[in-house]
Amino acid sequence: MAKQPVLLEAKNIIKDYGNGQVLNDISLQIHKGEVIVLVGPSGCGKSTFLRCMNGLEQIQAGQILLDGEVITEGKTDWPKVRQKIGMVFQSYDLFPHMSVIDNIILGPVKVQGRDKKEVTEEAEKLLDRVGLLDKKDAYPRQLSGGQKQRVAIVRALILKPEILLFDEVTAALDPEMVREVLDVILELASSGYTMLIVTHEMQFARAVADRIVFIDGGKIVESDTPEAFFTQPKTDRARRFLNTFIYAKDGEKLTSDSY
Amino acid sequence: MDTEFIAEYIPLYIEAAKLMLGIGLIGIVLSLIVGLLIALIQYFKVPILRQIATVYIELSRNTPLLVQLFFLYFGLPKAGIYISSEGCAIIGLCFLGGSYMAEAFRSGIESVEKGQEEAALALGLRKGQIIKYVILPQAISVSIPALCANVIFLIKETSVFSVVALADLMYVAKDLIGLYYKTDEALLMLVVAYLIILLPISILAAVLERSLRYAGFGN
Fold first, then answer.
1. Residue A168's CATH number
2. Residue A52 is part of which domain span?
3. Which run of H or of E encompasses A214?
4. Are the beta carbons of A17 and A42 closer than 8 angstroms?
5. How many domains does chain B have?
6. What residues of B are in contact with residue A54 (Cβ under 8 Å)?
7. Contacts of B121 in chain A (CB under 8 A)
8. Number of domains chain A is built from
9. Do A80 and B124 touch (CB under 8 A)?
10. Rounded to two decimals, what is the model's pTM?
């Protein structure tokens, strides 16, 4: 596959909350149509990195480029940038006082000034695509976690972003609902969406990713194809991380070299 | 109990109640506006105005309405500023109520989860749109009980209006006692008058709270 142009790029990102560096010189290029999955232990900075990419967190040094243009210098019009960088959160964060359809059309109508009727039709099509058309007039509290998250995905999609950020979108879900959400993301991946995904679902990561980026201690430790990363991790740290997902029989102890 | 006396002087109480409700209503609406404005100033962290708001809230909540009215009615004329009795009552009520309403709105705004704001930001909404479409609708439904309690509190506070020479309910009752020495009748009418005014408001507030709690949203 010929490489597409770089859509979103992080250059030497440094993020510091004041008590030690959270992101320590992270650089990453995301090409158009590419699906990158960020994995790593809790607190390694992967979610923070994601949140920096659409300005929810400020960076202390480095640059972020969208379509080749630096968006972290001078006065960034973040609301405008965020229409191009969609984001879905772990806690869904649907607006509880609005019906499903109103949650979805709020952005396009109020932010993009699009026609309400046209947007509503599009929203219905998207809801149908994730199997939730019959829930369009329901309120978020009437939905299951998996349904809420699918609505949240539609809410991000309808703005027609160039790239979608997924921040542990299945982490708060009951196991039987994880699948329905991941299936939606897999379908988006196969229809060519550019995505940056943070997840703890390793099977899913392997299936959806074009590239796995392993972050530990605020640094990119490994970046490889899913095949290579999951079968022959290059670093010891990645091996140890992957081992935490393996359950041994008979209480057999796992060590870093028993992988 | 002199029922004839009661029947004769009921109209005086009705007049006083009308006056009190008129001024009370204006004062309450104004304090709601002031309260919302202050809560927004605090939410947007507007420099300078924010500090002024803090000073105002402390000043307003830590001085009695009686003292505030004295200042307006007897203090300001010394500086050459004359305000009518009604004006003093409205300004006083608004000055007192504004801070209480502001605190009610503020606690409502703070009760909205942080994720709501972030989700709205991620959709490209601007701060003004976020407060309008996402934060306030949720905050106000949380604030309703506190706002209703403030309304009842402010209506009760109107009982000190007689110090600025307004013929409110308290004034009428005191007047009747002074003129005819009919203490029992005058006080009975006073209590009943307050109950007639405040009970429906309390019931309305309770109904409003319940309907909001079951209004179909809320986590």
1. 3.40.50.300
2. 6-258
3. strand A211-216
4. no
5. 1
6. 122
7. 56, 78-79, 82
8. 1
9. yes
10. 0.86
- DSSP category for residue B74: I
First-to-last C-alpha distance (Å) of chain A: 32
- Which range of residues forms the domain containing residue B111? 3-213
Residue numbers of B between 89 and 128 with CB closer than 8 Å to A: 113, 115-116, 118-126
**DSSP code at position A251:** G
pLDDT tens, N- to C-terminus, chain A (259 residues): 557 899 999 999 999 887 778 899 999 999 999 999 999 998 889 999 999 999 999 999 999 999 999 998 878 899 999 999 999 999 999 999 999 999 999 999 999 999 999 999 999 999 999 999 999 999 999 999 999 999 999 999 999 999 999 999 999 899 889 999 999 999 999 999 999 999 999 999 999 999 999 999 999 999 999 999 999 999 999 999 998 888 766 555 554 444 4
Question: Is the ipTM here above 0.85?
Answer: yes
* Cα–Cα distance, B43 to A147 (Å, whole number): 32
Nearest CA in chain A to B119: A93
Q: A94 vs chain B: nearest CA distance in angstroms? A: 7
Contacts of B137 in chain A (CB under 8 A): 97
With respect to residue A1, please indicate whether it lies within any of the assigned structural domains. no
B186: domain CATH number?
A: 1.10.3720.10
**Cβ-nearest to B124 among A139, A141, A159:** A159
Encoding tokens for residue B90? 């409205």
